[in-house]
Amino acid sequence: MIPRPLLALAIGALLVDPARSAAPGSGLDADDLAIAAALRDGTLASNPSYALVEDLTTTVGPRLAGTPADHRAVRWAEARFKALGYDRVWTQEVTFPYWRRGHESGAIVGAHAQPLMLTTLGGSVGTGGRPIETEVVMFPDLDALKAAPDGSLAGKIAFIDRRMERLRDGAGYGPVVGARSDGASEAARKGAVALLIRSVGTSRNRFAHTGQMRYAEGVPKIPAAALSTPDADQIARLLARGETVRVRLDLAAVEAGIGHSWNVFGEVTGREKPDEVVVIGGHLDSWDQGTGALDDGAGVAITMAAGAAIAKAPRRPARTVRVIAWASEENGLMGARQYAASVGAGWAAHQVAAESDFGAGRIYALRAGASPEAWPVVEAIGTVLAPLGIATESSGGGPGPDVGPLVALGVPWAQLAQDGTDYFDYHHTPNDTLDKIDPAALDQQVAAYAAFAWLAAETDIDFGQAPVPPAGGR
Amino acid sequence: MIPRPLLALAIGALLVDPARSAAPGSGLDADDLAIAAALRDGTLASNPSYALVEDLTTTVGPRLAGTPADHRAVRWAEARFKALGYDRVWTQEVTFPYWRRGHESGAIVGAHAQPLMLTTLGGSVGTGGRPIETEVVMFPDLDALKAAPDGSLAGKIAFIDRRMERLRDGAGYGPVVGARSDGASEAARKGAVALLIRSVGTSRNRFAHTGQMRYAEGVPKIPAAALSTPDADQIARLLARGETVRVRLDLAAVEAGIGHSWNVFGEVTGREKPDEVVVIGGHLDSWDQGTGALDDGAGVAITMAAGAAIAKAPRRPARTVRVIAWASEENGLMGARQYAASVGAGWAAHQVAAESDFGAGRIYALRAGASPEAWPVVEAIGTVLAPLGIATESSGGGPGPDVGPLVALGVPWAQLAQDGTDYFDYHHTPNDTLDKIDPAALDQQVAAYAAFAWLAAETDIDFGQAPVPPAGGR
Fold this sequence. Notes:
CATH superfamily of the largest domain in chain A: Zn peptidases
Number of domains of chain A: 2
Strand order of the largest sheet of chain A: 3-2-9-5-6-7-8-4
Oligomer: homodimer
Largest sheet of chain A: 8 strands, mixed
């Protein structure tokens, strides 16, 4: 992320058209800012975002990529884009390994037998049609597991007991999620027959947190599951007493061939430079246990409603605003990768891209990764967002997951950073349901996305290239 | 509940022994109050209550009456009473219908298919080895269901959608729980093939709330289940759109003959009147999904620790303190009924009885149902409890569930009323686990029970007879 470039600002001020003096160097005049402010205030007063996420979760519900429900969601998104007055609506097919959870259960066995609340990690193999029953060995974190001697876990279950920290920006996730992503193969390298992890989440509620894992090449694939916080506590307490803990796992997960889904696009076509594109969006798929209200029905609804407001504005912006309901994010950004691959050399037409994929908490910061020349645009956008309680920050942050593959090509990104303090209480659990959404917070986000996208599409300043490739997906 | 009897107070003052002038009419002198205060302060500083509930939930876990885990809990309670220095420890066998949950699942089917989080109500029949799949008809409450025309629900599922109010004293439970207890038979009378209810609980978390139901004589037994709050919302939203909602229920619950368990008793024998008994306790069984930390591991641990403190006091109280870990409370106060039946005419030896069965929130009030002559005793006890933030209240309240059958015989009751504001967020759900307990709140309760039981056992005033039979169990 580039710090605020004072030099570029100064040059911008010298070159500025007097009619655009409202925000020197931004390529935006007072009229542009006024339209953005009107979009902001209009969507605060009225917008369909809550109705959209209510409709998606109620009529579709969970929509694991490739399932019939996911396909219903695709049809839902197409129909809603059309009904909301978008100029163009289309889809793009995406394929991916089609994983299904099936039955899952676990229990402590023996003298202190009791059932465990757990959930299979996405992409994990099952236990092969019959339960695994063996001893558990606990590690405080992934590094400790990596440090275990080879073969020391032969025939055993590795249990990684690292807790996640609660932070507004979700920064507690990164240090912990490696156990979920890579723990199974690390455990298998030591001879383990299964992996258990403490859920990557911040809640004490008895829900286990799923999410995608991956297998390393050349290492046996062993099943992997997450325990709810109280169940991880339970095993940790027994082990702390010096007890031998034996666990039975019965997981029926399978990878069943190739799944299909579709990215869904709704576009408000630019009036002057229709081939230059500002991308906003959220992902349409969800995990299979909650109804994907926070992750990411909210993001789809926020950006769909923001684009709809722009479509109803007094004039189209100069560039095109493309709202993307991304396919198959949860199992590896499959829709985003497919889109990035398909645009190829056309990536440069993407001025800037942003994704709403961090729940439904209010936006508190605007950040961006763009060329120095674009910084006055970001600052101008920030002046319109400021009344929403949003600060413009000149460092930190990063692109949303589905924006990553575009950013890897060189596309600039923006982040409308949401308050995620409570996000990991619900994320990837059965408890991600509509009731967790505050409609007023959703309205604030629609206001921010509408103003942001309109101004980013209206300026005649180029956003340039993103200086750094994105971090991994979420 | 008798209002404070001014006349009795006046008579008490006239008859009082000067040595007992610390609390006129209470039969307690300054030494007695000092010992109670020392018990209070000593248990605040140190007591085994948290360790006990930690041990019970960790080494036993869920303990549905009659299961092997329940039997482990009985052995656990016997061993702990002995280790804690009780003078006598014994058990009493209890039998009851042995119900088991088995597999349970449900889903909305059709165009808006999605799984439902539900749980079979205790005592319910299953769906007979194959799923029921039919239309849902919603009622705002049990009375509305009762008002439906006969036969109007033929072949359908009745859904009672009443919400529970959050209140400190749990008073929101009573008006709602009738739908759980009696809804199935009322629905069957109208021709319904199954009952669904909105969970009797206050949480938005996606846990369904189980609890005992009962069938009326001469009405077909139909299966009954509770939906989590978000799932009840989901069905209500679809119905509010005018959609026909069809649900598939697959419940494998069975009543499998006669179950056995045991009331477990630990006694601190009185030094002067060992045959006069003050009863405190909690129930040892739990529902099968949580680990019964709040319901009622906490109550067992609090009263077990309080009795242990009395056993270690400088002198035994005049009367006996009997701590009872009640069997099979959840499926109908079966241990309490058995005990009351077995004491028969000996009920009058029970001076006063109290149960801790409302979670682990701090005690805020002392209430009692006893003769007017005993009110000065209650007031004297109140002076010792007051520093714990406990007010003595001369009206309201009622006995704990397992005390009910004794009170029905005429035994006076006391209530150390706990703050239950959050209790129904966890009660009867998988989320009733150890982490929901605040050890400091537990200590406050041990202090209150120890002081209460010691003073009630030390006074030479009789508690008389309870003026009214108890309300139903919880």
